[in-house]
């Protein structure tokens, strides 16, 4: 019995020693294999959108469902991994909380509306002065007040001029001389009568006598004591400069006349919009004095200089004025519609202007957004014309773009403000990103 016990104890000791040696050998082998694997670079997998999610085998991200990629350090990152660093992924809950809504970039016909204020002015091509062609006395005025309407065919005043009476007498004498010497056999005498008549007639014309008045002078055979004065155009008297009985000299102005059937509107267009203005464009004019009434005109001239105080360029609009409803110096509002053709457009809120860049967040996959540099043109209402950077059919964040950009900053991705002063720069490849809170996060998937 003693011998059997001793043998059993010896066998147990040998088995324990063998087991312990095997365990130690397996541990050393595992440590050696782990050391060799570590020296070669352990293959780990992470989510490009959530770099704090680390796994030792392929799979999907428990937060966004994105396919995991190999986690590499430093310069070992490939182009695709570097590109994904700028992306931001949002769960449906996050999109609702951030009020993120997407809209599709579409090619639509755009019409730019240039709105400006203006002042009604006289049409300078339809203004005239009534002046005294001869010196004399205003014996009679047919227009006694400013604002009176005058017609081209009716006299506005009558003037007595001794010089004019003398010129009429000379013309009548020349007519008699021509009739007396026209049958003379001497050619120089017969032709000289015609020359005297032509010279006297020309003098009357230079004194402002009309052809029909000369014809009446020939018919009457005696001079007119008072000469009627006519206006060169029909319109409204805007200035009255003489009184009845007043003596005037040759060239003195008597009245200022303006034809208000057509007026000018000089509108002031800001310097960032006047490049859209072209001659002949249709302009709609509205005035507070005539609610619901729209006047239409055309751009007739763009002034070649800019007002340094208001930073505006004056644009002249010529338009008819039926009933003389538009009064000079009246304030009006003008709208010019400029067709831009068909172009890709997105809402104004979809484009972030950082000062040096214009960025739109494009939805590359459901819930995944990537920053895209764009170049925009004219703003049409709440839409922006996109010149480059976006294609028709691409979806962009129409609201919540700034929140997406903030999310990108928090994760260290840079986002739309990367490189912009006052915002974080894009991280270096392989640099760790700070963790963030997410709904539905599985703590077992993280290796802190």
UniProtKB/TrEMBL annotation:
Residues 344-404 form the CzcB-like C-terminal circularly permuted SH3-like domain. This is Efflux RND transporter periplasmic adaptor subunit. SUPFAM superfamilies: HlyD-like secretion proteins. Residues 262-336 form the CusB-like beta-barrel domain. Residues 436-448 have a biased composition (Basic and acidic residues). The keyword Transport applies. Residues 192-223 form the CusB-like three alpha-helical bundle domain. The lineage of its organism: Bacteria, Pseudomonadati, Thermodesulfobacteriota, Desulfuromonadia, Geobacterales. Belongs to the membrane fusion protein (MFP) (TC 8.A.1) family. Keywords: Transport. Residues 408-448 are annotated as: Disordered. InterPro entries: 3HB_CusB, Beta-barrel_RND_2, BSH_CusB, CzcB_C, HMBD, MFP_Cation_Efflux, RND_pump_MFP. Residues 128-258 form the CusB-like barrel-sandwich hybrid domain. It comes from the Bacteria. The keyword Cytoplasm does not apply. Residues 45-71 form the Heavy metal binding domain. PANTHER family: CATION EFFLUX SYSTEM PROTEIN CUSB (PTHR30097).
């Amino acid at each position: 019995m003693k011998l059997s016990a001793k043998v059993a104890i010896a066998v147990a000791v040998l088995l324990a020693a063998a087991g312990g040696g095997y365990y130690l050998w397996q541990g050393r082998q595992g440590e050696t294999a782990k050391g060799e694997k570590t020296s070669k670079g352990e293959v780990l997998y992470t989510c490009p959108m959530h770099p704090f999610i680390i796994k030792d085998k392929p799979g999907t991200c428990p937060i966004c469902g994105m396919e995991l990629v190999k986690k590499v350090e430093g310069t070992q990152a490939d182009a695709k991994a570097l590109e994904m660093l700028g992306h931001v992924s949002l769960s449906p809950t996050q999109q609702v909380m951030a009020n993120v809504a997407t809209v599709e970039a579409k090619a639509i016909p755009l019409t730019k509306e240039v709105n400006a204020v203006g002042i009604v002015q006289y049409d300078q091509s339809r203004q005239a002065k009534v002046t005294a062609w001869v010196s004399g006395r205003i014996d009679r005025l047919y227009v006694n007040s400013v604002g009176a309407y005058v017609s081209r065919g009716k006299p506005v005043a009558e003037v007595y001029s001794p010089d004019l009476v003398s010129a009429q007498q000379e013309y009548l004498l020349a007519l008699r001389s021509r009739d007396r010497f026209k049958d003379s056999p001497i050619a120089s005498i017969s032709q000289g009568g015609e020359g005297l008549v032509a010279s006297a007639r020309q003098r009357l014309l230079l004194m402002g006598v009309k052809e029909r008045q000369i014809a009446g002078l020939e018919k009457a055979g005696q001079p007119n004591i008072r000469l009627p004065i006519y206006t060169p155009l029909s319109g409204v008297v805007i200035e009255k400069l003489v009184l009845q009985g007043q003596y005037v000299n040759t060239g003195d102005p008597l009245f200022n006349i303006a034809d208000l059937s057509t007026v000018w509107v000089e509108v002031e267009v800001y310097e960032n919009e006047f490049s859209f203005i072209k001659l002949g464009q249709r302009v709609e004019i509205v005035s507070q004095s005539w609610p619901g009434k729209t006047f239409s005109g055309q751009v007739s001239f763009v002034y070649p200089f800019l007002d340094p105080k208001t930073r505006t360029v004056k644009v002249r609009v010529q338009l008819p004025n039926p009933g003389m409803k538009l009064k000079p110096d009246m304030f009006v509002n003008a709208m010019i519609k400029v067709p831009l053709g068909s172009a890709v457009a997105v809402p104004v809120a979809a484009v972030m202007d950082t000062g040096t860049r214009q960025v739109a967040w494009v939805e590359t996959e459901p819930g995944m957004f990537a920053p895209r540099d764009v170049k925009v043109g004219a703003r049409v209402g709440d839409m922006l014309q996109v010149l480059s950077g976006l294609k028709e059919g691409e979806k962009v964040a129409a609201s919540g773009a700034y929140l997406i950009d903030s999310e990108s900053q928090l994760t260290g991705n840079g986002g739309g403000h990367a490189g912009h002063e006052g915002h974080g720069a894009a991280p270096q490849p392989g640099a760790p990103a700070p963790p963030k809170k997410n709904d539905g996060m599985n703590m077992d998937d993280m290796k802190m």
